[in-house]
Design goal:
The complex is a heterodimer.
Chain A: H1 10-27, H2 33-53, H3 62-77, H4 83-99, H5 104-121, H6 128-137, H7 139-147, H8 162-182, E1 206-207, H9 213-216, E2 221-227, E3 238-244, E4 246-247, E5 252-253, E6 265-267, E7 271-277, E8 287-288, E9 290-291, E10 298-300, E11 306-308, E12 316-323, E13 326-328, H10 348-361, H11 365-378, E14 382-383, H12 394-402, E15 404-405, H13 407-420, E16 425-432, E17 435-437, E18 442-446, E19 450-458, E20 462-466, H14 468-472, H15 474-478, H16 481-484, H17 496-517, H18 521-528, H19 538-561, H20 569-583, H21 594-604, H22 609-625, H23 631-642
Parallel strand pairs in A: 14-15
Antiparallel strand pairs in A: 1-5, 2-7, 2-18, 3-8, 3-16, 4-5, 6-13, 7-12, 9-12, 10-11, 16-19, 17-18, 19-20
Chain B: H1 2-19, E1 34-35, E2 42-45, H2 47-65, H3 69-93, E3 97-103, E4 111-131, E5 134-151, E6 156-159, E7 163-167, E8 174-180, E9 185-188, E10 217-222, H4 234-238, E11 244-248, E12 257-260, H5 269-286, E13 290-294, E14 297-302, H6 305-316
Parallel strand pairs in B: 12-13
Antiparallel strand pairs in B: 1-3, 2-8, 3-4, 4-5, 4-7, 6-9, 7-8, 10-11, 13-14
Helix pairs in contact in B: 2-3, 5-6
The chains are: A alpha+beta, B alpha+beta.
């Protein structure tokens, strides 16, 4: 107790400061910079002051700093509760704790708090790399806790402090995995699920031209798809998310209608596949082309958009069958007018162009589609991720003035042209392309593969997908988004070999997602079924968990309790000789002395008689001749016994 | 508040000691060497351990609530590491051996220096020892000597107190402890009186002591005119420029003291012992030869530290 009031020694304080800094660094990506940078600076300053100036932080400073921290968090987030403000507050409190850390007691409390903050960092990002980083981040707190024990042998080099912690974590890993597998999962959250990542780009339920720019440079994985059969060719890898019907002159929006049955479809066969969707905070589930039915926990809307019952807040796996050759909604019926909606007073030149095509081609809708695609292909249009801004009549500006843009511009302009010509048309957003990982047999689709295209309704064919971007830049469809972007428009990490390396590395992330992040109650049950446990309710799991933890502790106790008798080297050598002689058929009887035994062996093995008698003399000399055997004579005996030949005597 | 709580805790411990002597620290004194084993090592979480457990629980509930498997896995990892640290705390004490206790001499009222020999087959770090309200931290690598100051109050045999050996290694979350109660006593010498008369010597016993040449060779010095030739150190002079002469010590003649218990009839028992102790000390300091007569025991004339220790020991164990 008295030791707890002593000031910390230098090494302990260094380790504690390092632990705090590590926790803060791992938390930093989720903190606003104006909070993270000063906090790191405060840690560095505090360390320097204590180490080289030997000064403490004045006590009166703590309360104003605390007030400042709380004020800053409240000003930024509105309150201090919830995951994001709570984390920011915790990071600040962590640094305040370091300011007042002077005794081992403070340091212990601080280390516990650092562990807590480290764990909170995983609530934002649970990828393999983040998890490993946090596991490494546990080493400084463990080392600091060790250094607080008086009477230890402190290693001279700082890096040696990490080794015991690593050993401890390695020893703890089996039990940890066991507990991880058996801890009963909650069927529903106890309190509100986090609403993190509001800024995270993703497909939205509305689309403005140039709205994708953020998305196209975000190359974090969006979904991973594994197919039951062979994957569809690249040109058919269209993953539909939203079908947008309403255009207000500036943006296209999706209108969710939940009370109408899905549009009828005539499909020949289907492709069955399984999608693992990264959290999007939205309810839409992208599916390949045209889904035939909705997966459990989701429903199929009128336009065959799959909407989940709850927002996708964590990794979601679903299996769907889709058709790539189909006839969707052969009879449009009363909905015909809906797909011709256009806002009044916008884009007069575009409208007149569409109407002129109708006059020119009469009733041949397909010819009008071809005319529009030919316009994009031959009309001097350019594909770029950095298009010029558009004015109020956006489509007029795009079609007749700037003539540059990417998928959103083309899909939007094409759909407006079709509607002007009287052809029912709509914008579809989703993903197109992806990287086929041959080792893992899955398709990796990144957020940068987001795409927009159109669907037009042709009499007798139903809804037909038309991708106007393909008319401008076919590589976008065949090679993917990264290949299509003109040079210099992509961030450095999306180019060339680096991108290819990251595509290959993704298999590890997928494995981590499937094995660890996707391990849920269902998989838990599947894990236990081979052991004859069919009921996996909470009490069964708790019982299993308790039993296996007890078992693990017993194994640990057995390891701890076993006593290694310091074995006598001479006796060990004799035992080796006994084993060799036993293989030759001379087994030592219980109660038979070494002298009698070796004499008997010498009589039984006349070929080795001389050698055995010599060994006997050496042994007796070592055993009873002198109090302390000399190392050389012991080594001679050991060598002689090692060289003793064990050849079966032919009888 | 704190004091009341502490009193309550002390009462509870005292009660537990009475009721559960086998479980608590009322271990019978046992002979050395004492080796700690699993039957006598107890482990409980420390306050920090309980706090950390609560923190782990919060992290577990958070990870489960957010269905965050990565956080859950690391929470499990941390919990398992904490559990493993309990085993390490046990391993720190298990097999630790108190092989010997050596005691210096001390008079009553002064601290007695104890040397405890601990040995272990592998390195033990952060072992701590509580003895008489004092806590020491040390590491045992092979054999380690630990010095303790044992306060003494009265002469005679004094039993060693119970010693608590404990450790919170490696993370401070679990505290393993064991009680040692060595069956060994240390002898505390009586305290000499501060001042008093010199011993009265029998008149006939006072022989006249002639001055006599010393017999002890004290040093070599340079030759001075008038030195006897037989005192010249010839061998040493051969390796030197000048002649060297052996200089002999000539101690002042000292009479032998016969210290007798029965000659001090006017004093009470402890005062007699204190006076005899003082005389013994003076005689030893002055290099006298002395004998000691005690009721039931006589120590013949002699001198030197062993003789002194024998005499003081005899005084110390007087009833």
């Amino acid at each position: 107790m008295k030791a707890d009031a002593q000031p910390l020694d230098t090494r302990s304080f260094d380790l504690a400061a390092l632990a705090f800094a590590m926790a803060l660094v791992l938390q930093a990506p989720h903190l606003p910079w104006w909070l993270g940078a000063p906090l790191l600076l405060a840690i560095g300053l505090r360390w320097w002051l204590r180490r080289y100036q030997r000064t403490r932080v004045a006590a009166w400073l703590k309360l104003p700093l605390l007030a400042l921290l709380v004020l800053a968090v409240v000003a930024r987030y509105g309150n201090v509760f919830g995951l994001v403000p709570g984390t920011a507050l915790a990071a600040g409190l962590l640094v305040l704790k370091l300011l007042e850390t002077e005794t081992p007691r403070d340091a212990r409390v601080g280390m516990g708090f650092a562990c807590f903050t480290l764990m909170a960092a995983l609530l934002f990002d649970q990828s393999l790399v983040a998890t490993l980083a946090v596991a490494l981040g546990l080493l400084p707190p463990l080392a600091a806790l060790r250094s607080l024990e008086p009477g230890r042998r402190a290693p001279a080099a700082l890096w040696r402090e990490w080794l015991p912690g690593m050993g401890l974590l390695a020893v703890a890993l089996p039990l940890a995995v066991l507990a991880f597998l058996l801890v009963p999962r909650l069927s529903s959250p106890l309190w509100g699920a986090p609403n993190v990542d509001q800024q995270r780009s993703g497909l939205a339920d509305s689309m403005t031209p140039a709205g994708f720019t953020q998305l196209l440079v975000d190359d974090s994985p969006a979904l991973r798809v594994s197919f039951d059969g062979p994957p569809p060719p690249p040109g058919l890898r269209y993953f539909r998310a939203y079908v947008m019907s309403h255009y207000d002159g500036a943006s296209w929006t999706y209108r969710d209608v939940s009370n109408q049955p899905p549009a009828p479809i005539e499909a020949a066969g289907g492709i069955r596949y399984r999608i693992s969707l990264e959290p999007t905070r939205q309810r839409v589930l992208p599916t390949l082309d045209m889904p035939l039915a909705a997966p459990p926990g989701a429903s199929l809307r009128r336009d065959r958009v799959v909407i989940a019952d709850k927002p996708v807040d964590k990794l979601r796996d679903y299996t769907v069958s889709s058709a790539t050759a189909y006839r969707l909604e052969p009879q449009l019926g009363r909905h015909h007018a809906r797909w011709l909606q256009l806002p009044a007073g916008f884009n007069p030149r575009t409208l007149s162009l569409g109407q002129s095509w109708r006059r020119q081609y009469g009733n041949d809708d397909a010819a009008i589609v071809r005319a529009a695609l030919a316009l994009f292909h031959d009309g001097g249009f350019r594909y770029t991720l950095a298009p010029a801004p558009l004015g109020r009549n956006a489509m007029d500006d795009f079609l007749f003035d700037t003539r540059e843009g990417f998928c959103e511009h083309y899909a939007s302009a094409f759909t407006v042209l079709m509607r002007a010509a009287g052809i029912p048309a709509r914008v579809v957003t989703g993903y197109q392309g992806g990287y086929w990982n041959a080792i893992g047999h899955y398709l990796l689709v990144r957020n940068s593969d987001a795409h927009a295209w159109s669907e037009v309704w042709l009499a007798g064919k139903g809804w037909v997908r038309v991708d106007p971007t393909a008319a401008v830049r076919p590589q976008r469809i065949s090679l993917g988004a990264a290949a299509a972007a003109p040079g210099g428009q992509l961030p450095w990490y999306q180019v060339g070999w680096l991108q290819s390396l990251r595509n290959h590395w993704d298999i590890v992330n997928r494995w981590w997602n499937q094995g660890v992040n996707g391990f849920n109650a269902l998989r838990q049950r599947g894990l236990l079924r081979p052991f004859g446990i069919d009921r996996t309710d909470t009490s069964t799991l708790a019982l299993l968990l308790a039993a296996s933890c007890t078992l693990a502790m017993l194994i640990g106790l057995a390891w701890v309790w076993r006593r290694r008798e310091p074995e006598d080297a001479v006796r060990a050598a004799l035992r080796q000789l006994e084993r060799k002689l036993a293989r030759l058929g001379v087994v030592r009887q219980t109660g038979e002395g070494p002298r009698d035994y070796l004499q008997r062996a010498a009589a039984a093995l006349p070929a080795q008689r001389e050698r055995l008698l010599e060994l006997m003399h050496r042994y007796l000399e070592l055993r009873y001749g002198r109090a302390e055997p000399t190392p050389e004579s012991l080594r001679r005996l050991q060598r002689a016994i090692r060289d003793f030949p064990v050849r079966r005597v032919v009888k | 508040m704190h004091a009341a709580l502490r009193r309550l805790a002390q009462r509870a411990v005292a009660r537990a000691e009475r009721r559960l002597p086998a479980l608590t620290r009322l271990r019978r004194p046992e002979p050395l060497p004492i080796e700690l084993n699993r039957r006598r090592i107890y482990i409980l979480p420390t306050a920090f351990g309980f706090g950390f457990g609560a923190l782990l629980l919060v992290m577990l509930v958070g990870a489960l609530n957010y269905a965050n498997n990565a956080a859950l896995l690391l929470t499990c990892l941390l919990g398992a590491a904490a559990a493993a640290s309990m085993l390490l705390a046990f391993r720190t004490l298990d097999g630790l051996r108190l092989s010997d206790i050596r005691a210096d001499h001390a008079v009553a009222g002064e601290a007695l220096r104890l040397t405890l020999d601990f040995s272990a087959s592998r390195l033990r770090e952060a072992v701590r020892l509580d003895c008489m309200g004092e806590t020491r931290a040390f590491a045992v690598d092979g054999t380690t000597e630990l010095h303790l100051q044992l306060p003494t109050t009265r002469r005679g045999w004094q039993a060693l107190p119970r010693i608590r050996v404990w450790s919170t290694w490696p993370l401070g979350m679990f505290r393993a402890w064991s009680w040692l109660h060595p069956q060994q006593s240390v002898l505390v010498w009586p305290r000499p009186e501060q001042a008093g008369p010199p011993p009265v010597l029998p008149a006939d016993g006072q022989e006249r002591l002639r001055p006599q040449p010393g017999e002890e060779l004290a040093a070599l010095r340079d030759y001075r005119r008038g030195d006897a030739p037989r005192h010249i150190a010839w061998k040493a002079s051969a390796r030197h420029h000048d002649l060297l002469v052996k200089d002999f010590d000539r101690p002042e003649p000292r009479e032998t003291w016969s210290l007798d218990w029965h000659a001090l009839r006017s004093l009470d028992r402890e005062a007699r012992i204190a006076r005899l102790a003082r005389w013994l000390g003076e005689a030893e300091a002055q290099g006298r030869r002395y004998s000691l007569q005690l009721p039931g025991e006589r120590i013949e004339v002699g001198s030197g530290p062993v003789h002194y220790a024998r005499c003081m020991g005899a005084l110390a164990v007087l009833p």
